[in-house]
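Weekly structure sync, notes
Attendees: PL (lead), two postdocs, one rotation student
Agenda item 3: pending single-chain targets
PL asked that the sequence for the first pending target be pasted directly into the notes so everyone works from the same version. It is reproduced below exactly as submitted, 341 residues in total.
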Amino acid sequence: MSKKMKAAVYVNKGKVVVKEVPIPQIGQAEALIKVECAGICGTDLTIMSGNLPRVRPPLIMGHELSGEIVEMGGGETGLKVGDKVTVRPLLSCGKCYACQMGWDHVCQYLRLLGIDVDGAFAEYVKAPLETIHKLPEGVSLDLAALTEPLAVAQHVITVSNLKIGDKVAVIGAGPIGVLVALMAKRGGASKIIVSEVNEYRLELARTLGFTVIDVNKVDPVSRVLELTNGIGVDVVYEVSGTAEATLQMVDMVRIRGEIILVGVHEKLDPMNFTRATFKELVLRGSRVYTKIDYSRAIELLIPERDNLRSLISHRFGLEKASKGLDLVRQRGKAMKILLKP
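Predicted structure, written out during the meeting:
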C-alpha cells in the first residue's frame, strides 16, 4: 500500500483543496478504513463558512461514511479485515458527568470525526474500533453512508413523546427533515406535515407521501391549523434552524403539545415564551444519537432502501468535493450528495 492518499482538505474559510496527504497510522484500538462513500452534511458548510470556531485547519472533513476495513490494531471486537462497515463518528471523553451517566452522546467534551479530527473526505480514514459498526449482508455502501443522518432522525423520534395516531409537523425538508418525517411515519404518526421553501425538496417530500406546505405561497401556521381543525399538531420537529421557525413552531403545536429542537441555530433567535408558557408546551432538544440509535438505523437500511435512495441527488468523485459543497450551500436541486474517493 502506498503511504500517500488523496484527500479533500479544508485549508481556510471557503476553500477546500484536493491533495496528497499521508495515510493515517492506526493505534492499538483503531482500524484503517478504505472509504467507499462519504456524505456532505450541513455541518461541513458551517466549517467552510468559518463559523465553527473549534475547527482548526488544515482538516479533512466528513463524518458520514461507509467503507471496508483494510487494517486493524489489536482488540477483540468481532471485526476483521475485509468487513464492510460504517462509523459512529462520536468521540466521547468517558470521564465527564454525562459520560458517567451513560449519556456519552452529549459528552461535555464531545468531539467528532471530520470536525475535531480528520474525517472521511479521503481515500482512507482511521477510527476507534469501538465506533465501527459492521454492516449486514446485502446493504449498499451508498446507502450505508446515510446511516449517520438516519441515526440522527431515529434519535429525534426516540426522545420525543410521539404516539400512534399523532399528527406532526416537520419544519425543514432537507435530508434530516425528510428522514425525521420517515421515522415519524414508522413511529405511527397519522398525519405528517412538512414545510419548506425549496421547491425541489417539497416535491421529494410530496412523492414520499407527506402533506407539504410551500412557505413561499402559504402561511405555514395558518395551513397547519387548517389541517388540524384549528387544534395544532401534537409534535413539531424544528429541523430548519431558522429564526422564522422558532416563531412558527409555538403557534403550530397544540395546547400541551411538544416541540423537538433539531436544527442548530447559529445565532440567538426569538421565540414567544409567553405563548409557550400559556400553552404549557414541552420543549426538548435532540443532539446526534446513542449507540442503540445507530444500531437501529443500520437495521433500517434495507427496509427503508427505496426511500433512502430517493434522498441521494448527486455522486461525485473526491476531486469534485468543492462542487458538491457548493451545490449543498446553494440549496437548489440537491439533497444528499455523496463523495466517492
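Discussion points:
- The first strand starts at residue 4 and ends at 12.
- The two ends are 16 Å apart (CA to CA).
Action: rotation student to compare against the earlier draft before next sync.
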